[in-house]
Amino acid sequence: MKDVFPTQKNTDSTFVFALDTIISFKNYIEKCEYYEEIANKKQYVRTQNNDIPLNINFFIKCHLPTFCPKEKNTIILEGDFKENKTLFFHEDEKVLSVKNFEEYLNKQLLNWGKDYGYSYSPDRSIILLRYRDLTDKSKNRLNSVLDTISVSYFNFIRSFKNDNLDSLKSVYPLQILLEKDFRQFDENGNLIHLPRPPQPAPIEIVE
Fold first, then answer.
1. What is the pTM of this model?
2. Best CA proximity match to 79, nearest among 21, 128, 28, 132
3. What's the confidence (pLDDT) of residue 188?
């Protein structure tokens, strides 16, 4: 695993953090101090097993208008109501496991435009990892998800039986973006669908 996910160090070009160290994004977003520090750095999250690329710019920048990934280029990973398991969505809904996600990576990263339902090229493929909150339970689920993704990706890279791992990782990058899960649930675990805001009243022109 360390061949694919080598240990990283904090440098002028690299930022390494652990989920346990994050208390809140609020002040960072408002003041932009944290963002300015790491905006141009490669970002990695340190789990118990590996240092995994995980970008938090996407969340802090609040969906830049210049960065709008197409649905076929993205896969969304969300926790269930109790945060006991993680579901991922592409053509259908599945419970995250090493096998399921490895099958997805093979279809997504090796597609090269053959199937319109998957990414045109591997460098456009993005994993949106959503978190409900920053409680210990949520962070533990995220760490577990990251470990599952890392094993699936490791198996994918190793399937080439090629020792040039850096080249393979460059062609088939693992691109994970952290994003807030804004869904709301009732006490029974049912998803609450919020009503759409009313249409603005028509403008009355007075001559």
1. 0.81
2. 132
3. 66
